[in-house]
TrEMBL record:
InterPro entries: 3Fe4S_ferredoxin (IPR001080), 4Fe4S_Fe-S-bd (IPR017896), Fe-S_cluster_ET (IPR051269). Residues 3-31 form the 4Fe-4S ferredoxin-type domain. This is Ferredoxin. Its cofactor is [4Fe-4S] cluster. Ferredoxins are iron-sulfur proteins that transfer electrons in a wide variety of metabolic reactions.
Amino acid sequence: MAWKVKIDQDVCIGDAICASLCPDVFEMGDEGKAQPIVEVIEDEALYNCAVEAAEACPVSCITVEEA
């Protein structure tokens, strides 16, 4: 199974919780907003990490859904 990671850049406030919780999937971009390092996840451990980061996001701008 594979999952797609998206971040709504218009909503992201750049608090970096996703990058700190799941650095293999998220990083902070040059504009101070989060961006995915990988857009499609095929590893279940990375999926779980990405979902945890999405749930921790204070503005709920991250989605992780089946690809």
